[in-house]
Amino acid sequence: MSSKKYSALKNLALLSQLGFSMALPIFAGVYLGSKLDDYLGTAPLFLIIFLILFTSTSFMSLFKLAGVKSTKVKKEKSKKLRTVEEKKSFNENTGK
Fold first, then answer.
1. Rounded CA separation 18/39 (Å)
2. Residue 89 has pLDDT above 80, yes or no
């Protein structure tokens, strides 16, 4: 598999993961809140509470996921940079 195709698939997987991690908790909060409101007869009370709670949860997971991915990218870039610098210093020391 080519490097560009692999990179495109990685990006597509990341985008779909971000989408699901945002959408599913929000839909779950709406569903649970509306079912609880129907059961207890408290119009939009639990719907609003669960919507706010699950939306904040989805944003927290989004920021954690984005932070983990950006940290991995930074580590990979610094690793590549160190490898290039080591090769340069080796070539300078050996006279090549």
1. 32
2. no
HEC assignment per residue over 38-75: HHHCCCCHHHHHHHHHHHHHHHHHHHHHHHHHHHHHHH
- Domains of the chain: which residue ranges? 3-94
| CA–CA separation, 73 and 14 (whole Å) | 13
Nearest partner of 56 among 94, 22, 80, 32, judged by Cα: 22
- The pLDDT value given to residue 50: 96
- Per DSSP, the three-state class of 86 is helix
Report yes or no: 45 and 1 within 8 Å, Cβ to Cβ.
no
| Residue in 10, 84, 13 with CA at minimum distance from that of residue 2 | 10
2 has a pLDDT exceeding 80: no
